[in-house]
Amino acid sequence: MSEQSTYTIQCPQCQAELQVALYDSINVLEAPALRDELMANQLNAAHCPHCDFSFRVDKQLLYNDPERRVMIYWFPGHEDAYNQNREDFLRMMDALGDALPEDFDPPVVHLVFTRTELVERIFLLEADLNERIIEYIKYMMYSRNLEKMDPRRKAILFNAEDSTEDALCFVTQDLETMQFDGMLEFDRSAYEGLLEMFDDEEKTAHLMALFPGPHISARTMLIQDENQRSDEESTS
Ligand SMILES: [Zn+2]
User: How many CB atoms lie within 10 A of CB 128?
Assistant: First the structure.
């Protein structure tokens, strides 16, 4: 079921107080139109009758695709709040686990922090690709070219639309201008190779250690590694 609640928010333009109905969760099997709204950046849109301003409200949202057994939780927030949001998410999942019957096998709930990540993850899972291996590929793309591909300034995103049978396509996004400014390709056969390579207990453990989750992102991982290194350097 898709769930909507009424929220009191402030118009970002004229500061008027508004009552708006916003989705807390969407079930895209029952309501495929909500998936399309989300992808078109129209879900949880609000309009202010006082100043005629239209805007989107970014709030926590559970995306549920029961047909594919896919659940994605979008926890919007600034990068500085990622650690706190991750803790809150894990607490929520614990509480949910406790509330479910013991013999119930719930699907894994993916955690994303931005709308871009949410849309990318939906495309990824719909294309039946493994999110950890895709992030591993991005990790290699960053690591091989750290000068040009600084994770603080560039996001690498999977691009479903331009991917083909032979190649997985990625775009780079400049995070200052938010412009897409480059294209990267990765052989699908090499992806299949990675999938096979990681289908081994020891190698899977390595991949899990690299991306333990619940937020799986090469970019965030590289930035946090770098922060940790500079913390260590400044304390030693
Ligand atoms: Zn207004």
Answer: 7
